[in-house]
């Protein structure tokens, strides 16, 4: 289905002519021509100096922009036509006006032909008259969809390959510095279109922005997130080795943590003084929020003793975290009484390990940091078009093939390189967690009061899994085992539906009409339940459900399936799938979680009462794009009976840049930037109040923020269960980049997820509309 993948450039039709051409060239001994010789590939990898420049975003009002790829031959040989190909990544569709160019698109200016391979992967192939002398260069001018205002939209690690030879990454594009990407100095480069209101901040504009805050008068926070009540007394107490921790049968783990932190011993009886006591207390509920009473705690510090109270393990653990925070100089503790409780039961962090992989060690670090800031839900986005990251017992192909990216056009051994991963096997973008790794992550999270919510994204965003199981199919067909070949197949090979996702995939939706698909999903859920069961029983299963671009229309299997089920058309299949998942999760007594896209047809939400069995459905609402009239979606979902996690892309997407600067990392489709202050200033209890400027940097009108000037009222506030920060990792390849994108924004998230500040108590919105738009609230931070 979808785009045909060209194995070779079609010039092979001209074999005879080419041979004549080649033998002419052979006369000249310093011409690289021999396609069976690895030195051709090596020469290009070492000597082709690539440069990529955005020319202009101002060409045709938002539809397209122009850019160019320059290839310079820095060696002393001539590069001539042959069957070599240069692979590169484009997150914007190239030559969109000509698409689909199945036979490639001829770039007249550089005598090369351009192909879209899959997703971000494209290739350039020389035409027969291609010839580049030593120190000569060619310029390929491109038209691409939308705009490019950031350097990190360009991905590194381009590579060169020819049939029969070993691919090699082109040195001038290697690494993470993106030195081959030209500067974004002119407005038509760093702005999206001529009426874009954003320009990079200057030192002056940044100063002005910061000056509003009067930060000089803000005292350092002892504890983040801010506790409900901190009653500080004068004086402090030094907890030295003469102190002990009184053991607690029930909360032994916390006693141990506290003892370890202060370097104390644990004893079973209470001494006269100088002790830290752990006591269960049942009436703690300072915020009067029934869903978070188990996380509430009380700390009382006097010069004789310290008591730590909570009614459950979670609260005890958070008391320990707070003790660590206030033990700042490592010596003494301030005398105080701290009463605390979170506003939201769900305080989450989401991480996409599909686009790029992050090791188990990295995940543990993130969990440790989440625990420090009292975040309690880890939404683990384990699968994507670009990678399947969790070993599933019985289906080794998913990770043996689906977790690896390398240059194998058949995708028998790995899936195609994407997003700058380069061509070697097991390079960037490759990796997975074994079931043992996953269980270690679960144990680590569980010890820190963090629930792990695995997400296996379906039916869209599943290309890695689909391709892995197609490879599995071919493997078993080769040995004549048709039953095994079909067992978990997710593809109807006869489906001729043409579609293209927003990430330019044409084959990333599982076929939900196949029996084998249902068998596969059951197997997945059962496997996850088993991995979780002795550590942290699986409670929420997230099936993704976002951005299904359309498939199945021309699938014979779906036609059969529809008539068997008495269903009308393919449009009903998406809902059928949601109902099917509701049944599966119900059988296993799980909550079902989805990105909110999974719960609607067009703009109409599915009626929750029509879900056949499981109506415990958690909707993650990312889409609050004001200017599209989507600002009220969270309330629509909550009012319709879904439980909602606010995942708002305008404030809580930490893959977006910190500033509207082309040098900043990140995608910027939801908002031009999200700095820590913006996340900190997010008001979950009144979502419309968060609207400030559009993605273009223009003030929003009330009509945009609240369609028809009517701000939807939240009728079921209890259905907003919390907030979550999201990190997608298309542009994030290294651990350092991950940390830069996550921190400090995650601290701001934690603050809002736990603590409702005074400045969040907004008077009647009617009277303060102007205030919303001028962003006055920031002065109160
Ligand atoms: C190309 O190189 C291979 C091995 O390096 C050699 O065997 C072959 O004869 C060469 N072909 C041509 C056309 O020179
Ligand atoms: C071409 O460059 C290679 C390596 O850079 C060198 O070994 C060779 O001598 C050079 N040939 C000529 C003709 O300059
Ligand atoms: C600092 O803040 C305190 C309390 O909010 C206020 O009373 C005081 O006047 C402020 N000082 C200055 C210099 O602004
Ligand atoms: C503390 O209590 C736990 C649980 O009863 C017990 O396993 C542990 O040995 C005790 N530790 C000390 C040091 O008393
Ligand atoms: C606590 O909340 C309950 C309902 O959730 C309410 O009936 C009660 O009045 C509240 N108590 C206080 C002290 O606010
Ligand atoms: C799928 O399963 C149904 C019954 O569950 C059966 O009737 C049908 O033949 C199966 N189809 C295939 C292709 O195996
Ligand atoms: C099938 O769909 C068409 C148009 O979408 C509608 O007019 C028709 O009533 C539907 N039939 C059934 C049986 O639902
Ligand atoms: C879900 O389960 C209900 C009740 O068992 C059944 O009637 C319905 O057909 C099932 N729906 C799907 C989509 O599997
Ligand atoms: C949803 O379905 C239920 C039960 O069929 C019905 O009572 C209710 O009116 C429907 N709600 C909407 C908004 O259509």
TrEMBL record:
Keyword Hydrolase among UniProt keywords = yes
InterPro entries assigned to the protein according to its UniProt record, in alphabetical order = Beta_hexosaminidase_sua/sub (IPR025705), CBM2/CBM3_carb-bd_dom_sf (IPR008965), CBM2_carb-bd_dom_sf (IPR012291), CHB/HEX_N_dom (IPR004866), GH (IPR017853), Glyco_hydro_20_cat (IPR015883), Hex-like_dom2 (IPR029018), HEX_bac_N (IPR015882)
List the record's Gene Ontology CC terms alphabetically.
membrane
Does the record's keyword annotation contain Hydrolase? yes
What region holds the Chitobiase/beta-hexosaminidases N-terminal domain? 46-205
Q: Could you tell me which Gene3D superfamilies the record lists for this protein?
A: 2.60.40.290, Chitobiase/beta-hexosaminidase domain 2-like, Glycosidases
Which Enzyme Commission number(s) are listed?
Answer: 3.2.1.52
Query: Which reaction is the catalytic activity of this chain?
Result: Hydrolysis of terminal non-reducing N-acetyl-D-hexosamine residues in N-acetyl-beta-D-hexosaminides
| GO BP term (any one) | carbohydrate metabolic process
Residue numbers annotated as active site:
547 (proton donor)
Q: Where is the signal peptide?
A: 1-27
One GO MF term on file is: beta-N-acetylhexosaminidase activity
**Similarity-based family:** Belongs to the glycosyl hydrolase 20 family.
The protein's name: beta-N-acetylhexosaminidase
- Species this chain originates from: Magallana gigas (Pacific oyster)
Source taxonomy lineage? Eukaryota, Metazoa, Spiralia, Lophotrochozoa, Mollusca
């Amino acid at each position: 289905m979808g785009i045909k993948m060209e194995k070779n450039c079609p010039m092979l039709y001209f074999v005879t002519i080419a041979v004549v051409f080649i033998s002419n060239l052979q006369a000249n001994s310093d011409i690289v021509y021999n396609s069976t010789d690895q030195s051709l590939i090596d020469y290009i990898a070492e000597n082709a100096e690539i440069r990529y420049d955005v020319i202009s975003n101002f060409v045709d009002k938002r539809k397209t922009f122009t850019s160019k790829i320059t290839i310079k031959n820095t060696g002393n040989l001539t590069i001539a036509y042959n069957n070599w190909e240069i692979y590169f990544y484009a997150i914007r569709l190239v030559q969109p006006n000509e698409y689909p160019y199945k036979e490639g698109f001829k770039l007249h200016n550089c005598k090369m032909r351009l192909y879209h391979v899959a997703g971000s992967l494209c290739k350039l192939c020389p035409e027969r008259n291609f010839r580049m002398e030593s120190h000569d260069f060619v310029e390929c001018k491109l038209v691409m969809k939308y705009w490019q205002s950031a350097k990190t939209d360009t991905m590194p690690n381009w590579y060169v390959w020819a049939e029969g030879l070993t691919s090699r990454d082109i040195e001038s594009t290697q690494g993470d510095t993106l030195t081959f990407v030209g500067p974004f100095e002119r407005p038509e480069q760093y702005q999206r279109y001529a009426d874009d209101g954003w320009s990079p901040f200057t030192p002056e504009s940044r100063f002005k922005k910061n000056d509003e805050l009067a930060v000089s008068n803000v005292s350092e926070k002892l504890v983040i997130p801010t506790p409900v009540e901190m009653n500080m007394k004068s004086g402090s107490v030094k907890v030295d080795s003469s102190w002990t921790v009184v053991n607690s049968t029930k909360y032994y783990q916390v006693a141990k943590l506290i003892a370890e932190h202060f370097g104390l011993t644990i004893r079973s009886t209470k001494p006269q003084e100088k002790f830290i006591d752990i006591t269960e207390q049942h009436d703690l509920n300072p915020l009067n929020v029934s869903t978070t009473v188990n996380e509430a705690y009380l700390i009382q510090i006097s010069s004789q003793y310290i008591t730590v109270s909570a009614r459950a393990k979670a609260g005890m653990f958070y008391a320990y975290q707070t003790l660590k925070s206030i033990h700042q100089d490592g010596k003494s503790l301030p005398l105080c009484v701290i009463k605390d409780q979170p506003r939201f039961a769900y305080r989450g962090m989401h991480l996409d390990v599909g686009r790029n992989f992050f090791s188990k060690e990295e995940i543990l670090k993130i969990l440790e940091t989440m625990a420090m800031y009292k975040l309690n839900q880890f939404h683990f986005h384990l699968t994507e078009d670009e990678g399947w990251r969790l070993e599933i017992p019985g289906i080794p192909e998913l990770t043996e093939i689906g977790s690896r990216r390398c240059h194998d056009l058949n995708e028998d051994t790995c899936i195609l390189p994407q997003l700058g991963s380069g061509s070697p096997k097991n390079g960037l973008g490759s990796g997975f967690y074994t079931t043992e790794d996953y269980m270690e992550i679960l144990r680590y999270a569980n010890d820190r009061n963090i629930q792990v919510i695995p997400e296996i994204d379906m039916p869209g965003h599943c290309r890695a899994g689909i391709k892995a199981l197609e490879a599995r199919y071919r493997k078993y067909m080769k040995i004549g085992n048709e039953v095994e070949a079909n067992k978990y197949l997710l593809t109807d090979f006869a489906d001729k539906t043409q579609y293209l996702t927003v990430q330019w995939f044409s084959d990333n939706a599982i076929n939900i009409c196949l029996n084998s698909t249902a068998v596969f999903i059951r197997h997945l859920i059962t496997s996850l339940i088993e991995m979780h069961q002795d550590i942290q029983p699986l409670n929420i299963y997230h099936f993704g459900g976002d951005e299904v671009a359309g498939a199945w229309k021309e699938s014979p299997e779906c036609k059969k399936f529809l008539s068997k089920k008495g269903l009308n058309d393919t449009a009903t299949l998406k809902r059928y799938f949601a109902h099917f998942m509701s049944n599966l999760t119900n059988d296993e007594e799980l909550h079902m979680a989805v990105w909110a896209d999974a719960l609607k047809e067009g703009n109409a939400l599915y009626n929750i009462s029509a879900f056949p069995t499981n109506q415990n459905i958690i909707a993650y609402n990312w889409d609050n794009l004001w200017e599209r009239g989507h600002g009220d979606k969270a309330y629509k979902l909550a009012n319709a009976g879904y439980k909602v996690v606010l995942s708002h892309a305008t404030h809580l997407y930490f893959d977006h840049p910190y500033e509207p600067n082309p040098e900043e990392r990140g995608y910027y489709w939801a908002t031009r930037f999200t700095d820590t202050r913006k996340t900190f200033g997010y008001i979950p209890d009144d979502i419309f109040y968060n609207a400030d400027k559009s993605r273009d940097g223009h003030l929003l009108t009330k009509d945009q923020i609240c369609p028809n000037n009517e701000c939807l009222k939240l009728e079921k506030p209890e259905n907003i269960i919390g907030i979550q920060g999201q990190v997608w990792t298309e542009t994030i390849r290294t651990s350092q980049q991950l940390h830069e994108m996550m921190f400090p924004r995650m601290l701001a998230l934690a603050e809002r997820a736990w603590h409702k500040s005074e400045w969040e108590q907004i008077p009647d919105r009617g009277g303060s509309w102007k205030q919303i738009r001028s962003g006055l609230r920031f002065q109160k931070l």
